[in-house]
Amino acid sequence: MIRFKPGASRWAPPRLLSRAFSLSVPVAWGATAVAYRMTCPLARDDALGARLVSSAVLCTVVTGLVMHVRGGLLRELRRARSIAEAARSALLRPPPPRVDGLAVAAVHLSADREAGIGGDLYEVIATEHGVRVVIGDVRGHGPGAVRTVAAVLGCFREAAHDEAELAGVLRRLERAMARHLRERATAESDPAVTEEFVTVLLLEILPDGEVRALNCGHPWPHLLTGARAEPLAGTDPLPPLGPFPLPAELPPVPCGHLLPGDALVLHTDGAEEARDREGRFFPLRDVLAEAARTRPTAPGPVLHTVLTALLRHSADPPKDDVALLVLRNERHTCRPAPDLPEKARLRAPR
């Protein structure tokens, strides 16, 4: 049964009037040209002066038509950009400045400047199980990658609250990714879609600062502590989500404690793989270490330092999407667990 929304007909007259007004301008210009040709004696005069006047009138009419069409196209372009920006903000929404005692800041640079969004994703959510974080990178670009980002983020935003264990969140993401790829392959009639994948890093930060991680093929984050930048590395990551099955057991990797004042910098591979004109990779770790030495580890200054250095290094617009997410512990009351050494800090997983 077809249902019509009440009041929908009230919008029909304004739309018709708007349409009629948009057509009235070119009709008026055309009528002016026809009237000049039919009624003005100069239009039928073969003298040079008369021809110049006729040419000027014709140019004026054509210019008016072109300007009207251009104005309409510009309005449509602004409307399309406004809709795209709203969709981008809803999909890859900026995180709040504080999440359960953590200062947060994020930035995303899309390789597709027109789209404004690509295949990178991130989210920070405060749940009853702790603060849960995801950052990921979808293989490829374009509308297909954006749809994959939507599928992964939509699943994470629900699973982060529903699942008591971090492994349960990852299992939900795995099922959502598999279902999404099957649906895309059917809709696009392209079996190659099922070979696409997404790298994902899941973090869980508990109230006492303890950090646990599950890494599916994604770069490990960097820890900013004191005047140092230390990459969290040491264990082999799980396979990316997509055509690669996850193992039966998914024990979270214990990463120690994030103490007050320390910060984590999560990133996608576009930050590490950006090259300059001589083919040299962007020295992300060195830039982060410089930021830790010269500025406080507040998320905003750290992002500003990294972005400035990245854009200066690349010279050209980035060839790949870049996402950066900074989390700084501002819970001044949290302390390491009693059984840990006094100076225990977030460490590389072993």
How are the SSEs ordered, and which strands pair?
Elements: H1 12-39, H2 48-91, E1 98-99, E2 102-109, E3 120-127, E4 130-138, H3 142-162, H4 166-188, E5 198-205, E6 210-216, E7 222-225, E8 228-231, E9 253-257, E10 263-267, H5 269-272, H6 284-294, H7 299-314, E11 322-329
Antiparallel strand pairs: 1-2, 2-11, 3-4, 4-5, 5-6, 6-9, 7-8, 7-10, 10-11
- The count of domains is 2
State the fourth-level CATH superfamily of the largest domain. PPM-type phosphatase domain
Gyration radius over CA: 29 Å
Largest sheet properties: 6 strands, antiparallel
Largest beta sheet: strand ordering: 1-2-11-10-7-8
Low-confidence sequence ranges: 1-12, 333-345
CATH topology of the largest domain: Phosphatase 2c, domain 1
Measured between the Cα atoms of the first and last residue, the distance is 61 Å
Compressed to H and E, one letter per element, the order equals: HHEEEEHHEEEEEEHHHE
Outline: elongated
Find the count of extended strands (DSSP E, 2+ residues): 11
Approximate helicity band:
40-55%
Keywords: Hydrolase, Membrane, Transmembrane, Transmembrane helix
Transmembrane segments: 50-69
Organism: Streptomyces pilosus
Domain PPM-type phosphatase: 99-329
Any descriptors?
single chain, 350 residues, alpha+beta, Phosphatase 2c, domain 1, 6-stranded antiparallel sheet, 5-stranded antiparallel sheet, 7 helices, 19% strand, elongated, phosphatase activity, hydrolase
Protein model, in words:
The chain crosses the membrane at residues 50-69. Keywords: Hydrolase, Membrane, Transmembrane, Transmembrane helix. Pfam families: SpoIIE (PF07228). It is built from seven helices and eleven strands. Helix 1 (12-39) packs antiparallel against helix 2, helix 3 (142-162) packs antiparallel against helix 4 (166-188) and helix 6 packs across helix 7. The chain folds into two domains: 9-86; 93-329, Phosphatase 2c, domain 1, CATH 3.60.40.10. It has a six-stranded antiparallel β-sheet with strand order 1-2-11-10-7-8. Strands 3-4-5-6-9 form a five-stranded antiparallel β-sheet, with helices on one face. The protein has 350 residues and is of the alpha+beta class. The chain is elongated and about 90 Å long.
